[in-house]
Each structure stands twice: as structure tokens, then as C-alpha cells.
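=== RUN LOG ===
request id: a7f3
mode: sequence -> structure
chains: 1
length: 398
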Amino acid sequence: MHDFIRSSLAALPASKIREVANAGLGRPDVLAFWFGESDEVTPPEVREAAAASLARGETFYSHNLGLPELREGLSHYISALHAPVGVERIAVTSAGVSALMVAAQLLLSAGDEAVAVVPVWPNITAQPEILGAKVKRVALHPQRGAWRLDLQELLDAITPATRALLVNAPNNPTGWTLSRAEQQALLAHCRRTGTWIVADEVYERLWWGQGDEPGAEAGPAAPSFLDIAAREDRLIVTQSFSKSFLMTGWRLGWLVLPADPRGQALEAAGKLLEFNNSCAPVFIQRGALQALALAEDFVPGLVARLKAGRDTLLDGLARLPGIEVAAPAGGMYAFFRVEGQDDSLALAKRLVTEHGLGLAPGAAFGAEGEGWLRWCFASKDLARLGLGVQRLAGALGL
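=== RESULT ===
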């Protein structure tokens, strides 16, 4: 009998976060902190713009690369945060995960080597494997709950045989963020080896500085490779409307590609978008345009609310003995370890089934995250976080 699917796909692990969530979905008593999304809905102006688009009958195909006006809006938005980026470098995608997949399809063939900084959202390492590429994992190292990069270890892993470096910073799940010096060292090294950098910067606006170190000032965005790269560098940045604009269910993202006088990168991305999903829905792009118009009025308030959630959760966890955790520099997650608990999936399942507390197991982010749990603190209702800490304490007999 013929195999039904390719062996590389059969070997892909199922989502351990979904495994835990499936044990608690539909239970009104469960406090769900397992997914990476806020308990706030999308701003009303964004929803109204999308509804108005539907009311106008904008239900037809759009350009593969996105509405011209949305790409123009993204150009202004990106350029205000970083170095100027023209519309000829921007492609709109149906979700940030689609942007990552298109980037992988642009660069990687079967047998190619990619290097990834881990632990990380599993899709980032699974996508190259789906394409038949090999992924070399370089792990961050926890130190008193904070995760640090051994820069030399990463540089040594990137050789002329490395087709792409995959890095997510601010990082999901750890909150680790690349420093400017680390970015400069990586960019210089990748220039020498001819390695592409694929930077997932979806959490760049959800940032409070380098681990709250003294004197570290948090600007409007975390350090980005776009701040230091030349227009023609081998750099692809993937982004999404999901996190900074509370639009997880809308599934809209974008790519920033290198500048190319012949437009080959953008043309290739357009082809791949056609073959993947043709185009993003027009009404969703209209909503995104409104989100960009609101950005500088809306995002700082969201970041302040997330910091309040972060601080509330960390204060609660700090009162529990046997918990190892550090303040994340960016993102929306606390990544913590419970002394004596090494099986994160078993612990997460017990917490949800017996105590109504839904957390993501660290093993979902690779073997490097085993023994840890991820708690999304994107909760406007701070009392929910406090109640969650109480349930954790009860589960641990504290």
C-alpha cells in the first residue's frame, strides 16, 4: 500500500498547546492563558472599517501583494519606526505564519540547512522541515529564569553551508530579545557567510527594554534588523497585525523583502502568494488600514496594559516558593519553571483538568523548553491573573 503522506509530514509533532487546550475547551470554569492572544477584542474602528467594506460589496479578489493603499500605509508605518522601507519591498500575507512560510519557500530547498534560535514557536522550525530542509538548533540558556544567547555559539553554528538563520525576537515563549550589538554581530557574520536572515519581529511593539536593566530605555519598538541592514542585505522580516492590534483572528501579516532593482524578490513572493492563497481578503485589509491609522494612539495603551498584566503575574508568581521566572523584555508571556516538575505536558494537563488553569507546556516549543510553562499575561482583567496564581498555588499545595 502506498504511503498516504510524505514521511517528513508524518513525523511532524502535533501541537502540544492544542492538546492541552482540547482538554479544557468548552469548560466555562477554565482560566485560559494557553494561546498567544489578549482577552480584548479588536478596536471598534477596525471592525467598523471591515464591516463597511463588506457593506460596499468588496468581496472580490485583490492583488497578490495586497491593496496598494495598504502597502503604502505599511511603508509609512515601518519607516516611522525604522529606516525607510518603500512599497516595492512589502508584500501583504494572510497571517504572519503565512509570511513565514512564504519566506521559507523563497529560500529553502530540500537538503538546505537552516539555523534556528530556540526554544521558539514550533511553526518556525517546522516549516523548513516540511520543505525538506534541515534545521540546526541553537539554544538560549536560562539563568535565574532569564534566557540568554551565547552569541559565539550561534556564530559558530552559522557557516557558508547555512542557507538561512531563523530568529524570533522578542521571542515566543521566553521574552528574550536581541540587543543591538548582537544584531550587528549576526548581520556582519551572515554577510561573510552569505546566509539569509529571516527575522520574525511580530512582537517588536510589545517591548519594555532589555530585561528592565538599569538605564535601558524602551522606545516604540524593540531593536530590529531593519534599523541596521542595508536595503540590499539578505534579510527578510516577517510581521503580523495579530499582536499589536488585537487582530489574531483576522489572519493578516506582511513581509519586508530586500531591495532589488529588478524586483525579483517581490515577483517571486507574488507567485508564492498566488499559489498559497491568491490574496488576502479586501475587507480584512480595509480593517488593517484603519488599524495603521490608529497605531500611535492605540498601541502605547495596549503596551501599558500588557505591562500591568506582566507585573501583576510576576508579582504573584514571586510569592510562590519553588518558581523560577524572570521579567521578559518583550512579548506577552511569562516563561517559568516549577521546582521538581520536569514533564511540562503532564503538568499542564493536570492544571487544566483538575484546577481549571490553562497554560502552554514548554515542551511545545521544543526539547529546550521542557520543564517550563508559558503563561500569556495579555489580560485586561488583572483579577483573572491573580485568580490563576491562586489556582497554581492550590495545585502545587502551597
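=== NOTES ===
The longest strand covers residues 162-168.
Residues 211-216 have pLDDT under 50 and may be disordered.
=== END ===
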